[in-house]
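Good morning,

Both structures are done.
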Amino acid sequence: MLNPAETAERLRRSDEKAFEEFFRAYRGAIHRFIRYRIGDPEAASDLAQDTFAILWDRRHTIDPKKSVQALLYTVAGNLTNNWMRHRKVEREYRSELEWASRADDPEPDRTFLREQILRRVEELPEQPRIVFLMSRVEDLSYREIAERLSLSISCV
């Protein structure tokens, strides 16, 4: 097991072996931490790598009296928050562009609207998405959905 104070001091001294040990000990946990928050395994891998790169870049500022693990999770959390904010801005921008490009059309394009609805449905958590699709696509009643999913009608 890594000694936290010793690891912090070794990292401050640019000990690459200490960094490698620290990386191996925490890479899986950091990847899971990020993946659970954003749901994108590939982006989580990139953000986990960035987390360790930032830690290495800032190794000289590590305070040996403080937890390096806490610093690692703070960096990962900040990167994740920034990534999520960026994705939200991208989605909003794309949506505005798509709507603006159709503003000249006197009748809304049904295909476009359908794509927008499907995109939003895909963003729903699993259970609400299943219920929605059973209701709207399969045209099942709430009672039928409740019976198939072993739920109460009020849950549906």
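Second structure follows.
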Amino acid sequence: MPEDMTFVPIPTALCRRVEAALGRLGQATVETFVTHVVRTALTAHEMVSTPAPDQEPRIVDRLRRLGYID
């Protein structure tokens, strides 16, 4: 295992399912598939932003004007 890699265990049954589907998934190895899935999940998570505290009054005011809150 290269130095810039780490070992993350997954259930054997899940690994076998990934191996069986690699061709359909467009990936060469289980490692490349898992790396792709983790990167995709992290990107999606990072895209969800939390408004800054100073933006809250503007957001509440807009929601109030739109009728979502009283």
